[in-house]
Amino acid sequence: MTPTLTPPPETVVPPATDERCDRCNAAGKLRITMAGGGELVFCGHHANKYADDLVKITVQFAADPDFQWRGADLMASNSAN
Questions:
Q1: CA-to-CA distance for 19 and 80, rounded, in angstroms?
Q2: Cα 35 from Cα 29, distance rounded (Å)
Q3: Boundaries of each DUF7455 domain copy (predicted)?
Q4: How far apart are CA 65 and CA 80, in angstroms?
Q5: Closest CA to 41 of 20, 69, 60
Q6: 71, 61 in Cβ contact below 8 A?
Q7: CA 16, CA 70: separation in Å to the nearest integer?
Q8: 39, 17 in Cβ contact below 8 A?
Q9: 34 φ, ψ (degrees, to nearest 5)
Q10: Coil, strand or helix at 19
Q11: Is 35 within 8 Å of 54 (Cβ atoms)?
Q12: Which tens digit of pLDDT belongs to each residue from 9-41?
């Protein structure tokens, strides 16, 4: 049998310090990867404001270590169902 190499899963990294929110141009605190493969960056305010909608389109996310995204809890409860 021929061994098959599986590439490591893609990881999402938190926004760099110079990345800006796609909504208002404030400092990015959250990066999401959408099902279609695109990425969006949000500031803390907009990430939490739109958390209910963002969890519907997010397949992976990474937040700044000092930022607590409200959507993380929503995603965890959705995956448990």
A1: 32
A2: 20
A3: 17-62
A4: 24
A5: 20
A6: yes
A7: 20
A8: no
A9: -90, 160
A10: coil
A11: no
A12: 556 788 998 999 999 999 999 999 998 889 999
The burial class, CB within 10 Å (0-12 / 13-18 / 19+), for 24 is: exposed
Please tell me the number of Cα atoms within 13 Å of 78 on its side-chain side: 14
Residue keyed to tokens 């930022």:
67
**Integer CA distances (angstroms), 63 to 7, 9, 29, 38, 73, in order:** 24, 18, 6, 16, 13
What is the DSSP secondary-structure string of 64-78? Answer: -TT---HHHHHHHHH
Helix (H/G/I), strand (E/B), else coil: 34? strand
State the pTM of this model: 0.80
